[in-house]
From TrEMBL:
The lineage of its organism: Eukaryota, Viridiplantae, Streptophyta, Embryophyta, Tracheophyta. Gene3D superfamilies: NAD(P)-binding Rossmann-like Domain (3.40.50.720). Its EC number is 1.17.1.9. One of its GO terms (cellular component) is chloroplast. NCBIfam families: PRK07574.1. This is Formate dehydrogenase, mitochondrial. Keywords: Mitochondrion, NAD, Oxidoreductase. It comes from the Eukaryota.
Length: 384
């Protein structure tokens, strides 16, 4: 079967390279017959779980696949308890076969956890973005990592557009005035602008970045993008976006910067104090990609000094964000918990995608190629 071939190839590759993890590869990695132990890690909905029958992305909803899995004889354990040596997830690491997690409440799959997981074969992300997994360790161990590519790209792009408008129009102070009984138009208007005519640059123009550019075009903005590769010429023409090969040359041109790049070894801490200083004074930044792309304290300091006039997003590091995270308290922020990609519509899409991949896994069939993040010991191009 396909999974067996992939596992065999990975074992040979790692063993020949002398990888220190190769000693862990005595386990049987293919989708062998029989009952599987599947663990899902999701956020808990508590009293909100029963308010929407399509709320499947939480612990209580369990992606809507419990009955299907258990009817086939598989064991399905779902928890939100994912941190520390005594957490519920840790109890199941040694004998689980499949681990499902989401970017919104990520189970951090470290090299240490991978080494302990002697039966682990498959890591699935319910959503997009698998940086909560040590992908190099997963590749070395011959594991398959996959996500539901495209499942929530519209959701995230719409949210980015909303946050851009919230920051540009200085919406939040007005909302707080209305809620607290105040009325001071000047306190809002002195830094409220139109989006039309502003220069917006996206750092990354993959699926989400392209959707954002398409949605910004009717606002008559000057659109720029930086990426590893240029977009298709037809899409460039359609959006009117201009390619900027040099990120540091693009940043001073932008009134608004949107982060749309995956978190990799190359992008971790990409926006440190020095790079933020290259942005235009008074820049607005929206980041729905990953919190660790930014130097958290550098962002907070730049917001306090006014170099960043507003910062909005829903991604933090770690997640859930600690109560003392500096972004909670910095001025002119439009932050929320990680919610942009977990709308009800997105949940239904990524739940269906997870079910499809599990079904293929049980049958030993290949996944859609775009879903693979680690396959046969190799990382997908965006993580290389």
């Amino acid at each position: 079967m396909a999974m067996k071939r992939a596992a065999t190839s990975a074992i040979k590759s790692v063993a020949s390279s002398g990888n220190p993890l190769s000693s862990t590869l005595t386990r049987d990695l293919h989708a062998s017959p029989g009952s599987k132990k599947i663990v899902g890690v999701f956020y808990k909905a508590n009293e909100y779980a029963s308010l929407n029958p399509n709320f499947v992305g939480c612990v209580e909803g369990a992606l809507g696949i419990r009955e299907w899995l258990e009817s086939q004889g598989h064991q399905y354990i779902v928890t939100d308890d994912k941190e520390g040596p005594d957490c519920e997830l840790e109890k199941h690491i040694p004998d689980l076969h499949v681990l499902i997690s989401t970017p919104f409440h990520p189970a951090y799959v470290t090299a240490e956890r991978i080494k302990k997981a002697k039966n682990l074969q498959l890591l699935l992300t319910a959503g997009i973005g698998s940086d909560h997994i040590d992908l190099n360790a997963a590749a070395a161990a011959g594991l398959t990592v996959a996500e539901v590519t495209g499942s929530n790209v519209v959701s995230v792009a719409e949210d980015e557009l909303m946050r851009i408008l919230i920051l540009v129009r200085n919406f939040l102070p007005g909302y707080h005035q209305a809620s607290s009984g105040d009325w001071n138009v000047a306190a809002i208007a002195h830094r409220a602008y139109d989006l039309e005519g502003k220069t917006v640059g996206t750092v990354g123009a993959g699926r989400i970045g392209r959707l954002l550019l398409q949605r910004l075009k009717p606002f008559n903005c000057n659109l720029l993008y930086h990426d590893r590769v240029k977009m298709d010429p037809e899409l460039e023409k359609q959006t009117g976006a201009k390619f900027e090969e040099d990120l540091d040359a693009m940043l001073p041109k932008c009134d608004i910067v949107v982060i749309n790049t995956p978190l990799t070894d190359k992008t971790r801490g990409l926006f440190d104090k020095e790079r933020i200083a290259k942005c235009k004074k008074g820049v607005l930044i929206v980041n729905n990609a990953r919190g660790a792309i930014m130097d958290a304290q550098a962002v907070a300091d730049a917001c306090s000094s006014g170099h960043i006039a507003g910062y909005g997003g829903d991604v933090w590091y770690p997640q859930p964000a600690p109560k003392d995270h500096p972004w909670r308290y910095m001025p002119n922020q439009a932050m929320t918990p990680h919610i942009s990609g977990t709308t009800i519509d997105a949940q239904l899409r990524y739940a269906a995608g997870v079910k499809d991949m599990l079904d293929r896994y049980f049958k030993g069939e290949e996944f859609p190629p775009q879903h693979y993040i680690v396959k046969e010991g190799k990382l997908a191009s965006q993580y290389q």
